Amino acid sequence: MEKPISTQNPTQYNQTYIWLISLTAALGGFLFGFDWVVIGGAKPFYEPYFNITSPADQGWGTSSALIGCMLGAILCILLSDKLGRKRLLIFSGFLFSLSALGTALAETFWAFNAYRIIGGVAMGIALNLSPLYIAEISPPEKRGMFVTINQLLVMIGVLLAQLTNWQISLLDTDLAENATFEMIAASWSGQFGWRWMFGAEIIPAILFFGLMFLVPESARWLVKNKEEKKARKVLERIGGEYYAANSIAEIHSTLSKGELGKVNFKDLLKRPVPKLIGIGVFLAFLQQWSGLNVVIYYAADIFQAAGYNLKQMMLNIVVIGGVMVLSVFITLFTVDRFGRKKLLLIGTGAMAILYALIGYSFQVDQGGWVIVLLVLTNVMFYSFTLAPLLWVVLSEIFPTLIRGAAISIGALAHWVGNFTLTFSFPTIKSNLGWANNFWLYGLICFVGFVVIYFILPETKGKSLEQLEKEFGE
User: Considering only Cβ atoms within 10 Å of each terminal Cβ, which end of the chain, N or C, has fewer?
Assistant: First the structure.
């Protein structure tokens, strides 16, 4: 019996090739990150343009793209195991391009949200399939790091969107620091600046669309769909003939001949898949209801409540993006060393404490730099734990046969959690107040810590086929 690939010397891998195709796929994550947060910096300007004043309309403008994200996740449930990862990622690149152009040119709030929803479909596909694709082409002992590359690109997209928003806002030199709603509506930023914020995304979107034609399909998907010759060619280029033969043998060991080329959704009900889906759904909701997306989407409102003016708020938002990018490097160097579970426990525990302190600061009207420091520390812990590790775990725990559909269910839960959090926040905040709102998120993080401690299995350092056999047992 051949020895498992986890013992193979990693220097035998074609690292350059793996990095190139991983970075190309991770451009989907970059576009997700850009599209995810560009709304936050544009919010103070497009709301006056469309005369958005009610909490319901504010919540809809901020969260409408998340409806598209849910549709994108559903599309992946139905098609990712049938059509493959590559085709859907190419399609998402097209939708990103269309959304960027349409949102930038929108003249009505209806059209604005329609194009945001189209972009949301692209986000739902990219955030789902980019980490899955990378996981399926990565060597097992480096899989955590390579999947985290996608999250690094997400955070770089976040930072670039925030930098773009900030720089565009600075172009409007006539806009007063304490401008009123009406003054912003009549300004260059209120009429045109926010359009450039959304339109800037079209350049990386077209790049992603074109480059995805050049990468191979996932070898594991190819084997499952009776295209073993193509799969062998991909795997040989990644790690040589021995690696290809061993990998294909492992993939076949988890599939019967009758299952090749088939997608049977009844397999989602076979043991232990429902339990694994339950773990994935819980982690997806935890990642969202941990509250960090409120900090991202409503950063301007949070910093305004802490006593900052418009231009100071825009700069603080950029600092958040910088912290998010730097934090992911912690994950890159620790995820395959310490494992997924330990990092998630560190993150949820620290966030529960920090939310308690943020809530107390609002309770006693301690604003200014104290709020900023606590928020940035909270962002740091989220960014190297919950943010990237949800997708690492989801890409690892499901069987090959229905991995695309199963991870898409987790992604759908992610977007449902994101939408319910984002849409309800203005109403919850107005009823509970800032302090109670943050204490609620702290309680959710504490519950997450307890569940992860007792239920989540460790997955580091094992091939996807090894994990499938262990969970099956």
Answer: N
